[in-house]
Design goal:
Length: 205
């Protein structure tokens, strides 16, 4: 499993939900702490305000699920599928994603600070208005993805592929053009100046 940022280990789980069928389950108001979810089907699950704290999700299917104002704090996701899943206003702070699929995943608002997505295939993911401060995007594949109006302050992006990625309106102070692939990325004029300065260019009016 990929290590969490700063080497912090995942919290030990205390109970297990195994091979359960939670297809189309309404998770609204549910609270789960230090639970291992293994081989659980959460396809088309919905929920408003569900809280998962220090849980581990292994081989869980979140396909076409919709989560609103939910919290997944310091959770670990291993080999999970998020095909066409939607997260709106969710708090996913400190969570780690390892070998997961994110095809067509949509994230609208919320706080994903300190999240771990190293090497993640996010080429068809869509993030808008998301706080991603100090997120680990090392080696992440974001070619052609959407990452608009996001706060990436302090994010790790070494060897990340952001080619053709729509980055307009996002805060990109940690992006080093020398170590990040930005060919064909869509940026706004303010970002263009910042990147030019990062490359050592003398920008004048």
């Amino acid at each position: 499993m990929a290590e969490r940022r700063n080497g912090t280990p995942a919290a030990p789980t205390e109970t297990t939900v195994r091979s359960a069928d939670w297809d189309s389950r309404d998770l609204s108001g549910e609270e789960h702490t230090r639970v291992l979810f293994s081989d659980v089907d959460m396809t088309e699950a919905t929920g408003d305000g569900a809280v998962f704290t220090e849980c581990v999700f292994r081989n869980v299917r979140f396909n076409v699920s919709a989560h609103t104002d939910a919290a997944f704090v310091n959770c670990t996701f291993v080999r999970c599928s998020f095909f066409d899943a939607t997260f709106t206003g969710c708090k996913v702070v400190g969570s780690m994603f390892d070998d997961c699929s994110h095809d067509l995943m949509k994230v609208r608002g919320g706080d994903w600070s300190f999240v771990g997505l190293p090497g993640a295939d996010l080429r068809r993911a869509d993030f808008a208005d998301v706080r991603l401060r100090e997120a680990d995007l090392t080696g992440a594949r974001l070619a052609g993805a959407t990452l608009v109006r996001c706060d990436l302050s302090g994010a790790w992006a070494h060897r990340a592929d952001l080619s053709r990625c729509d980055l307009r309106g996002s805060v990109l102070p940690a992006m080093d053009p020398a170590t990040v692939e930005l060919r064909g990325a869509v940026i706004d004029p303010v970002q263009a100046v910042a990147l030019a300065v990062a490359l050592g260019l003398d920008v004048r009016d």
